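Section 5.1 Outputs to date
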Amino acid sequence: MRGLIAVGATALGVTAAAVLFAGPIAALVGGLWFTSSTSRSDVPTVASSSASLVAQDEKPRARRDDASRVDDFIRHARTGSAIIRPQAAARLVRVGTPAGKRLLELATGDNDDLALFGSNLVEVFGQFPEVPELRARLWPAVRDTEFPWRPAAMRGLAWAPRVDEGTDFAAYVDDPIGPVRTAALDGLFRVAQAAREAQDDAAPAHEVRFLEAAVGQLDDEVDRVRNRAAVLLHSRGHARGLRWLVQELQRTDSFFDRPTGLNGRYEALGLLVDLGFEVGNYAPELPDAPRPGAPEMRDGLPTSNAAAMRLIKAQIEERIAEAQARLPESLRDLVPAEVPPIARATRVDTSTVVLGLELRSCRRGDYFLRWTSGDELLVGDGVPERIPLAEGATAKLLASGTELQEGLGPKLFWGIPGCDVEAFRLPRTKGPADFPLLLTVANDGVDRGAPRPGALTAYGAALAASIPTDAELMGAAPRTRELAQRVRAAFASIGGPLE
């Protein structure tokens, strides 16, 4: 790396002279993978964004005051808290061209240098139309599989894509990283929209490319990717995708202590409200039906979501019928009538799960693995893929886990908190048996932090070795294809190689 930003110690206001190309710096660079720091009114939103903090009718004086604080905002967008970073990036977008030119002055290095800006700043590089050179930095970053903020770079590109970039976005709808896939679909949607508005001769081809990609993502292994595809398809008149959100409202799954199903319920609820549906008294924490012997109402409040779900389903089916009637007959079955198994709210039996591994890699994607006492490997959260293991495989891993705890001592965390995480879950040798031990290795995506302990490297290698090869699986599903190889690559990108 050839250096990027040195932040002065001034408490208020970093002067231009204090932002220098002074060599690599050790700065905590974080970012949220799925929450955009800005949003576009022409595309349905998935998550609330900090752009809403920027009023469109503010007085010119406020804008001038912001222009004098560009370096402040850059510093806060890089090194502030997770709440402050997107707000500061949004303030830069509000300032407009002067902020874009200042960012361009600083963005003169390679992709390693660009990574030091952090995900929130990288994302807004695409939002300064008067400084196209800034946006031009993003495609090389997306193409660089070692760049840690590829989702942010893709979101920046998708903000205002050129009509001739359709094939470029299409190349990433199957990317290994879920947020990159989602942003690529956003890009295709906007390309098709722009071509349609411009009455471009290629508009039909752009629309077909978007629709094919969106329908394909309805079968994605990541819930938020599926949800985004469903919302965008609905906006183009294909309302059947709303049935995917109905399934999300009924999820009960979890990954150890992480309530994945509850999180899915909250997201689907927000999306349906944004789309104008009445949700009644639906509450994500309530069960789908009253518990045995319980009344439907208690003290004037529902004891379950049964009535709310009837209301929501009736509205969705009515909207689907209306939308289907408006579609050309040739397009009515583009979105399947039935939700695929991977997206259904299925109760997953995890009573025999004894070991777990969660890998979240900025560069290689996310993996959620669970081993059962019956020698099965569960791949993915939500509705997992089940893989049979060799007899006694889990017992060997449990024995190795016991030895691991004896050698590691009391320490539970190594590295720097950030977007890269290795989380090992295994039964405790000491303490409450119903509370799994969690051992974590992490880094912030730029600074790799402390190395993984040798004992955890050996244990990670044992976990990876227990995953069957494609030849052993004989016709692997998409989630399990080359799984052992991909898991090893994720380990290497976080805490280092397993060998």
